[in-house]
Structures are given as structure tokens and as C-alpha cells.
Amino acid sequence: MLDRLRFVPGRLLQAIPVLFGVTLIVFFMVHLLPGNPAVAILGQTATPERVAALSKQLGLDQPLWDQYLLFMKHLFQGNLGTSITYQRPVSELVFQDFPITLSLLLFALVLSLAISVPLAALAATAPGRGRDLGVRAFTLLGQGMPQFWVGIMLILLLAVKAGLFPVGGYGETWGEHWYYLFLPALTLAIAMCPTVIRSLRASTINVLGSDYVGTARSKGAAGAGLFRLHVLRNAAIPTVSIVGVNLGYLIGGTLVIEKVFAVPGLGSLMINAILARDFPTIQAVALFVALFVIVIGILTDVVYTAIDPRVDLSSKEFA
Amino acid sequence: MTTAVVRASRAMRRPVRSRALKPWYRNGTLVAGLVIVGLLVLVALLAPLLTPYDPIAQDLEHALASPSGAHWLGTDKYGRDVLTRLMYGARIDLRVGFLAVLIPFVVGSVLGALAGYFGGWFDTVVMRVVDVFFAFPFYVLVIVLVFVLGAGESSIYLAIATVSWVSYAKILRGELLVAKKQDWVIAARLGGMSHGRILLRHIAPNVLSQALIYAMSDIVMDIMAIVTLGYLGLGIAPPTAEWGSMILDGQEFITTQWQQATIPGLAVVVTSLGLSFLGDGLSDLLTPERRR
Amino acid sequence: MIPESGAPLLRVQDLTIGIRRPGGRSVAIVEDVSFDVDPGQRLGIVGESGSGKSLTLRAVAGLLPRGVEVLSGRVEFAGRDLLTMPAKDRRALMGPQIAMIFQEPMTALNPVMRVGDQIAEGPRRHLGMSAKEAGELAVSMMARTGIPDPARRAKAYPHELSGGLRQRIMIAMAVSCGPRLLLCDEPTTALDVTVQLQVLKLLEKLCDDTGASLVFVTHDLAVVNQTCSELAVMYAGHIVEAGRVKDTFRQPRHPYTRGLLESAPDFDRPERELIPIPGFPPNVADRPSGCPFAPRCGYVRDHCTEAVPPLEEVLPGRLAACYESDRLVEVLA
């Protein structure tokens, strides 16, 4: 399989111009605000001297293009700027909060698979019948519910009414972390499920009708054995790429969910930075998130290559 | 260009008429969608007639009242009738949702179609730009943009437009890559038909159906985004009634007046369901051979 | 089919397969099919696409597609009724007793599983072998089916092998548990002609070595001639003729069989004119009442369209479903 992974370095190289584009967008988006950012930070009542001092400190008196170059130069040095709100290097904040968001995402992924795979299997093995219609109804509803609202409803039902889970926060110990992350992860999982179930259901129906499943049945395979050996891996193949595409959208959802549950991850960092007009942090986190999405994209392709031995993304056809 | 070529090419291309296997009114999904969306639009339009209350007038004496005969869904923390705000909220969310789709639809479709049809450097450039935008999670970009542009309706339109045109571009580009290889297009070009005429009069009607179907789900996504922005305090400014900000207000009182946070969300769910049905029904109608 | 001696290994009686509809309006695709297969016997089932030959085979294997089911009849294997048996028991037979070989090896092999593992799957499940033992068995099976360098090839994926090799894998997979009955659904149709002969000879050798019976479904008369001793000709869901291959080819007793023979090219007599059968086989939905072949038949008489002619013995060991069978006495040179 290693030789089929030849495409990875090329893909990383391709990511660079995209990242450049991202830095452009991120930088100019934030800096094209009408008016002086320093004024926006200090407020309308600030004295001109303070504004000037802050402007100089932030390098805002330079031409815009020079500011961009400075930004890029710092970037290459690993310097993501200093947070105005926290007065700490943004890189520190990112490194501190990213693992939390990552845990949340992974937890959500696991939960979503745990829910989706059985439901998709249930639906696909009896298409058109009661349980299939039930699963599809669930999918339809799931797509119609705003993520943050689902979170609030889960809080209402499982935290407030039933008292099973905390209303928000992150906890102290390692074990507590996972406990506190359960509801937010479940919320995200419910958001992911419709897409995954739809795709998995369709591909499972496909696979179940395939010739090789017929062959497997002719060898006496059935039930769980049939699924494990023959159906699951084949059905997962198209779903992997679809999940990969949607993961980006989901990362955006994490932002909001972290706010709902007061989880101190990148999402909360971003939102609070936005509300506090902390430009350097906004810039850096946006950039970091874009990088993360690109890496996820490449990882998805790696997983795809691993699952399907026929796939060779390094071959020229895909250039 | 000879009329024979025009006639021949016209004969070769697929008709745009509904190719559905049954008439539109027998399509259960489509009808359900039309009914739901129709009712919502009706409620939104007739809101002032349907309720005696003012959605933004405060009445602090009656704040946080439970549902009763006078206030079917109770009142919020400023004493405003929740049901009234729900109905007025529909006006905002539905209107902004529908309008927010227009610019991305037009801009994205045009750019994508031109990129797919003419190819070359234009295509490469457009696709690179699309890639950059795709690297951003939708919400991150929208939130940051709204923040940059300041809260308010026009910022929402601009932010959403900036981010979601890419999907239309991709769809239309894909459609056109296929369409331009069709026999009748080649025949028309050989007969001397101009690019413009081919694109506008002949390709467009066939190819737009995919974008139209996507637009329906895009409206749902936009309404979600608007409601989410409202929840984050970045959307339509209070005290205007909007479902997202209503949920935010309601979250405070989740323990006592839980319906305040719950009901607006249900409104969103119903709206999405209606629009989904509409989209699926439309999909059946316009492209029956592409079964889901 | 008249059994030669002893009890038949497989007995199919009045098998009717189709789509069940409420109110007694079920649609039959295969009607009243009966045949026996003795131990060690090789039976070919011949017919065009749509004749129902594949469905018949699949009904024996228990692999009918969704929506299609056995409407009536019996299928007995070694004296046990397969259709009424509990599913678990039936599955236990599939592999060690009955095995099937499919037409398209590319789609009939699991694309994400190594071929060695696919061959080993049966023995592991049915013979209780460990992974290692089954793996070794798989390699030896591959060697038996003539695959060069089997130990290395066992680790390959299906898409890495040629069509001929893939079919050998399928065969190795089928015989891995030593079945008594091999059901083959056009296994050579998708192969190059040169490879076809090799595969056929392989199948024959394996059956000779193990004493297994063979039911071979095909549309290719030459293949039946090569490999089978008995044949059954199917048309529009019915068996219209049955008997020993050589006798039937020499002197067919059903107009359809005769038509097939006359329209098939013969390398030994390239100058013979090919006479196609006029018309097309009927749609499942609108089969004519009476003999299904009547609309295209050159020997048709009025009574042919009244009732379906029963499959009867017209000569010792020869069955035909035709009222006019006696008129077909000319010998085809």
C-alpha cells in the first residue's frame, strides 16, 4: 500500500498555493474594516494619542501590503501574533485549545459511526419497509434541526430534566473531560448522522445486490459474518469520501457547539475573539482551521486509499 | 447558419418539459412541500393580521409568563408574546433565507458555467479560487465576515454570498463539461451558432435544473446560518424578532420556560422539512431519471 | 431426466419460480421444471437469455434475487428438501456439499479481500480450519486449478489478476470444501476463447477426480457438447427437450433444439448454411397459452396453441415437450 500513498507529498505541495490564498483572504478580510482597527478596539472615546500608540504597536500605520508581508514573515517564523485580549502569543492559545476541539471531533466521529452504521444496516437490509422508512424519517428530521438547537435540546432533556450530564464546561480530570464532552459530541454526531446514514444506506443496498455478495452467500455466509467480511468495507468506500467532504462543514459546526456548551476549545477561542475584536487571534485561528481542513482532506484520501486496494490516486489520471 | 441546422439541433436536444412519470400534483413529496412552505409564507405575510400583539413592544409586568389563553406560548423576558415573535420571526428568516440564495445562485452559476464551457485558463483560475473557499468551513467564514461587516441584514447577504457561490460554480461547471460534449451542441457550433445563443437559449434551461434543486437545500442551509448567527448575537440586530436570537434569549430560562428555546427551533425544523420536501419533489419532477 | 441407477443426487420436481402477487396473479418466469442429476453426472442446461436457466440454478442454490421466489415445486438434494429446510441448515450445505461458480469473475469476487482469503473462507467456516490451515489449503487449491506461483498470488487482490486467473480462483473457491454438486452459471462466457477451453478441461478434471456432479448453465452448444453427458434445453421458462447430448445433437426432437443446432456455426462443416430462428423469445409478461415456442415454430399445428405440451419420453432416455415431436425424425448430419 505504501507505493499507493505516493500522492501525499504532491497533495501537500498543492495545498501551499491554497494556503496562500487563504492567508490573503484572512488578512484582507480583517484589515479592510472601514475605520481604524485600533479605534474599534479602544472604543470611540479613546484619545487620539492612545489610538496612535496602539496603531503603531499593531503596525497599522504601515501600508497595507507591507502589513501583509510582515504578517507572512511572522507566519514563517511560527509567530502567529499576540492576542490583544489575553496578551499572550496566539500560538500558545491555539496549542492549548486545539487538543480539546480535536477530542471533541474524534468523540463525535466515533459516536456518529456508532449510531449511523447500525441504522444504515437496518435500513439497507429491508429497503422500503417499516424500519427503512423510520431511519429515513430520522435522517430527514436530523437535517432540518439547527445544530446548536439540538445541543440546547439535549441539555434540556439530559442535563436539566434527567440530570445525567453536566450543562456545560470541560471538567478537571481526564475522565471528566470525556464526561463533559459527551453531550457536545453527541450533538455533533447527530448533525453528522444524516449524511453518513444516507450514503451508507445507499452503498450498502448496492453492495448487498452485488455479485460478490452472491458468491459469499453461495459459500454459506450470512448475517454478521457476511457483513463483517464482505459488506462493511465495500459499503464504506463511497461513504468515506462523502464524510471527508462534510468534515469541513462540521468543523464549522464545532465553533458554535463549543459556545453552546462552554467548551474551551478553538471554537470558543474564535467566537470570543470575534466578540472582543481580537484581530490577531481571529486571523490565526481562521488560518489554522483552514490548514486543518486541508490536512483532513488529505487524510481522508489516505483512508480511502487504505480501504480500497483498487484506488491509486498517484496515477496521472487524477492529476 | 441554416435553418436546417437549427431545426436539427433543436430536435436533438432534450425537451425541458417535465419528464416526470406522473403529474406534479400526484407527487406526494412535492405537494407536502408546497403545502408546508405555503402555510409558512402565508403566516409570515399575514402576521400583523393574525396577532394583536406588537413583536417588539415590551411589557415587563407580564414578563416570563407561562402559556395561557392570552399568550398561547407565553412571554419572553421582556414581556413580548412569544407566538407573535415566532410569526414575525418567520418573516425575517424566510425572507432573508430566500434572498440570500439569489446572488450566489446567479454569480456562482454564471462563473461555473463559463468556466466549464470555455475551459482554459479561466477555468483553472476559477477552480483555484473555488478550492481556496472550500478550504474554509462554511461557518467560520460566514461568522468572520459578518463580524467584519458588522451585524445587520446586508452583511448577512454579503457574507453568505461570498461563501456559498462556490457550490453553484462547481455544479454548473460539472454540468457544462458534460453538456458541451453533447452531439447537438457540436452540431450547432458547426452550423455557426454563436456561443452566446447556445448557452442562453439552449444549454441553460437543461442545466439549471440541477442548480435549482441544489438551491432548495441551499435555502435550508442559509436559514440555518441566519438562525445560528442570530443565536451568536451576530445576525439581525435585536429587538427584531428572529428565531435564532429567540433561542438565545430562551436558553437562559431553559429550566423554567423551556418552550421559549424549543419552539423557535421547531419552527426551523418544520421550515427545513417543508423546503426539503419541495426540493425532493422538484428533483423528481425535473430529473426523474436520476433516482435518488 | 431418467436416472441411470441408484438415487439421484439432485432432484428438481415441477419447480415454478416467479414473482408472487396477491390475488393469485403471480407471474411465473420458470414453469414446471423437472430434472434429476445423478452422482458424477454432468448436466448442461441450455437456453437463450431470458429462458430461465440461471434462475433455475439460483433456486437450487438458494440465491434468487430479491422479489423472485419459488412459487411451487420441490428441490431435493441427497434426499433432503432444500426448500423447506431451515435456513441455517441450508447454509451449512453451501460450500461443503453444494457450490456455485458464477459468470463474471470480476464482479463475483470481493474487490477488497485477498483472493487467498476468499478461498480460505469456506474451509474456515465449514471445516473448522484455523486461518493458517485454511490458508495452506487455499494455496494448494490454487495449485490444483493450475494457477502458477500460487503462494504469492494468494496475497493478490482480484483486480490484479487476469480474467482467466480470476475464474480459476472462483473454481478453487468452489471446490475448496469438496462439494458433491457444482452449479455453474455460464462460467466461461466472459472469457477469451483460448482460456475457455482450459477452464472447461479444468472443471472436467476436478469433477472426475472428486466424483462431483456438475450442472452447467450456458447458451453455448459447443461447451455443452464438450463437457456434458446430458442436457436439458430451456425455452421461455420451460424445459422443452432433455436427453443425452450426443443423441440430441444428432437427432433433435424439439423444433427449438433443431433451430438452435441449425443456427449455430460448426467448424467441421463451415459450408453449412446457418438458419436463424425467426422471431424473438416472448416477454415474461405475455407468454402465449399453449406451447411457448408455437409462434416461431415451423411444425406448428392448431392443437399446439391450446395447451402446453408436457415433457414426455419420446424415445428411451429422450424427453421432449412437443406434440409434433415424431415429425422431427430427420437426422442432422
Strand order in space, largest sheet of chain C: 6-7-8-3-9-10-12-11
| Unreliable parts of chain C | none
Alpha carbon gap, first and last residue of chain B: 41 Å
Mean pLDDT of chain C: 88
Number of strands of chain C: 12
Intertermini distance of chain C: 25 Å
The total count of helices of chain B amounts to: 10
How many distinct folded domains of chain C?
A: 1
Describe, in plain words, how this protein is organized in 3D.
- The complex is a heterotrimer of chains A (319), B (292) and C (333).
- Chain A is mainly alpha-helical and 319 residues long.
- Chain A has helices at 7-31, 37-42, 48-58, 64-76, 90-124, 130-144, 147-161, 174-208, 211-218, 223-261, 266-275, 279-307.
- Chain A contains 12 helices and no strands.
- The radius of gyration of chain A is 24 Å and the shape is globular.
- Chain A starts with 6 loop residues before the first helix and ends in a 12-residue tail after the last helix.
- Chain B has one domain (29-41, 86-290): MetI-like fold, CATH 1.10.3720.
- Chain B is 71% helix and 0% strand.
- The model of chain B is unreliable at 14-19 (pLDDT under 50).
- Chain B is elongated.
- Chain B contains 10 helices and no strands.
- Chain B is mainly alpha-helical.
- The longest helix of chain B is centred in the C-terminal third of the chain and has 38 residues, at 195-232.
- The relative contact order of chain C is 0.13.
- Chain C has one domain (10-103, 181-327): 3-Layer(aba) Sandwich (Rossmann fold), CATH 3.40.50.300.
- The mean pLDDT of chain C is 88.
- In chain C, the strands form 2 sheets. Chain C has an 8-stranded mixed beta sheet with strand order 6-7-8-3-9-10-12-11, sandwiched between helices. In chain C, strands 2-1-4-5 form a 4-stranded antiparallel beta sheet, covered by helices on one side.
- Chain C has helices at 53-61, 87-93, 105-108, 115-126, 131-144, 150-153, 163-175, 193-210, 221-227, 245-250, 255-263; strands spanning 10-19, 27-37, 42-46, 69-77, 80-81, 98-101, 181-185, 213-218, 230-235, 238-244, 312-315, 318-320.
- In chain C, helix 4 packs across helix 5, helix 4 runs parallel beside helix 7 and helix 5 (131-144) packs across helix 7 (163-175).
- In chain C, strand 4 (69-77) and strand 5 form a beta hairpin.
- Chain C has 11 helices and 12 strands.
- Chain C is an alpha/beta fold.
- The chains are: A mainly alpha (319), B mainly alpha (292), C alpha/beta (333).
